[in-house]
Specification:
It is built from five helices and five strands; from the N terminus they run E-E-E-H-E-H-E-H-H-H. By secondary structure, it is α/β, with parallel strands linked by helices.
Length: about 140
C-alpha cells in the first residue's frame, strides 16, 4: 500500500511517497506554479503520481497555527483537500505540519546543501517529514 505525502504551499507543492510496506517516505518532486490560485496542473500532476505509484491515500500537511487555530493558510489547505478528493477519488488525511519547513531547512543545512539551493529541496523534504510523521503514527504488528 503506497501513500502520497504533500506539503502544499502558496506556489509550490512538495511530494513524497511511501515504500510499498508503508514504513519509509521518499521525496519525489516539487510541483511549482506561477500563481497561487492556478491549481489545475498541480492537481493533474498529483493525480498522475498517485496513479503511477498506485497510491491508496494522500497525507496532506495541515498548517495549524501554534495555538491550534485554523488560519488563512490552513483554510486554503482545507479547500485544496476537497479539490484533491474530488480529482483523485482518494481519501485525503490531514497531518499536523507545524515546524516541518523549519525542520526541513535544518536537515538540508546538516546535509551541507548551500543556501541558494535549499529552496529547490525544502518543500520536497517537508513532504517527506509530513508523510514520515504519519507513517510513524500508524500501529504496527
Amino acid at each position: 500500500m503506497r501513500i502520497l505525502g504533500l506539503d502544499y504551499g502558496s506556489r509550490t507543492c512538495g511530494v513524497a511517497v511511501s515504500d510499498p510496506l508503508g514504513i519509509t517516505a521518499q521525496g519525489l518532486e516539487t510541483i511549482v506554479r506561477k500563481d497561487e490560485n492556478k491549481l489545475r496542473r498541480t492537481l493533474a500532476r498529483i493525480e498522475e503520481l498517485a496513479g503511477e505509484y498506485g497510491a491508496e491515500k494522500i497525507v496532506l500537511g495541515f498548517p495549524l497555527n501554534m495555538n491550534d487555530t485554523v488560519g488563512p493558510r490552513a483554510q486554503k489547505t482545507l479547500e485544496f483537500k476537497e479539490m484533491l478528493e474530488r480529482r483523485t477519488g482518494l481519501p485525503v488525511i490531514l497531518q499536523d505540519e507545524r515546524l516541518t519547513t523549519v525542520e526541513a531547512e535544518e536537515v538540508l543545512i546538516e546535509a551541507g546543501v548551500r543556501r541558494e539551493e535549499r529552496k529547490w529541496y525544502v518543500d520536497k523534504v517537508a513532504a517527506v517529514l509530513i508523510l514520515q510523521g504519519y507513517l510513524d503514527s500508524l500501529p504496527r504488528g
